[in-house]
Amino acid sequence: MEIFGPTIQGEGMVVGQKTMFVRTAGCDYSCSWCDSSFTWDGSGKHLIVQMTAEEIWSELKRLGGSGFSFVTISGGNPALLRNLDALIAILKENNIKIGVETQGSRWQEWLYDIDELTISPKPPSSGMTTDFSVLSDIFEKLNNQNNEQHTSLKIVVFNQVDYDYAKQVHLRYPTIPFYLQTGNDDITTTDNPQLISRLLGKYQELIDWVIEDEELRDVKVLPQLHALVWGNKRGV
Ligand SMILES: C[S@@+](CC[C@H](N)C(=O)[O-])C[C@H]1O[C@@H](n2cnc3c(N)ncnc32)[C@H](O)[C@@H]1O
Ligand SMILES: Nc1nc2[nH]cc(C(=O)O)c2c(=O)[nH]1
Ligand code: SF4
Ligand SMILES: [Mg+2]
């Protein structure tokens, strides 16, 4: 649905990493606050292009030249697409490191081949319900693989109920590197100074909760860095 970059990864375990993005269409969720809802709510239908893996690779090179070594695949939910294996094979052949963003609701065999895999289960404010049997199954598969791959959990927090949910997830999977991310509750504004100051306030609030919480120790707290730099701009 979108191919863009080079930019920086604004979220999670490899925040700051120079990367290209490939964004797939379609999601099995419909989060109330989704900042990429055009991938699944019909509003971005005209942007959907069926592409072969070779065509995606050509477009990445057209945009990024030889100036990138990392590609992040997001969506929508990229884990809906079994055939992404062909793209992943091409990226590997070309020594490109691969990141994936998914919510942990679906398994694909190619998840074994992702260098930096972010699993982002959704808290109550999203309106979605986590199927913990699917999530546990994903972690079990990845754990048995035991290779060079890195997996992390990243949970977006909008309120205290979300925070409690995030803690429960962390306690369930204590060995998975755990990230909390500030929720953006104004995903349409173009008033960047106002949005940025609001998001920084929310980030500060989330940090304060963690500082005061003796039960939550091994955690990293991050904002969406791209939102602080570019606001709600798409394709960055
Ligand atoms: C758009 S999603 C696409 C990948 C996948 N469907 C998922 O949710 O993980 C990419 C990341 O953006 C996060 N996200 C979406 N809307 C957000 C918002 N309003 N504020 C903060 N993070 C948001 C998601 O939680 C997810 O971690
Ligand atoms: N710069 C930048 N970083 C991101 N990290 C996750 C993103 C996403 O939408 O999945 C994203 C995005 O859209 N842009
Ligand atoms: S799972 Fe991801 S892409 Fe799907 S609706 Fe939620 S935030 Fe948006
Ligand atoms: Mg995004």
TrEMBL record:
| UniProt-annotated binding residues for S-adenosyl-L-methionine | 33-35, 76, 120-122
The entry lists its GO molecular-function terms as: 4 iron, 4 sulfur cluster binding; carbon-nitrogen lyase activity; magnesium ion binding; S-adenosyl-L-methionine binding
PROSITE patterns in alphabetical order: RADICAL_SAM
Q: Which residues participate in [4Fe-4S] cluster binding?
A: 27, 31, 34
**Catalysed reaction, written as an equation:** 6-carboxy-5,6,7,8-tetrahydropterin + H(+) = 7-carboxy-7-carbaguanine + NH4(+)
Q: Where does substrate bind?
A: 8-10, 23, 74
Family label:
Belongs to the radical SAM superfamily. 7-carboxy-7-deazaguanine synthase family.
Q: What does this protein do?
A: Catalyzes the complex heterocyclic radical-mediated conversion of 6-carboxy-5,6,7,8-tetrahydropterin (CPH4) to 7-carboxy-7-deazaguanine (CDG), a step common to the biosynthetic pathways of all 7-deazapurine-containing compounds.
HAMAP family registered for this protein in UniProt: QueE (MF_00917)
Protein name as annotated? 7-carboxy-7-deazaguanine synthase
Give the organism the record lists.
Psychrobacillus insolitus
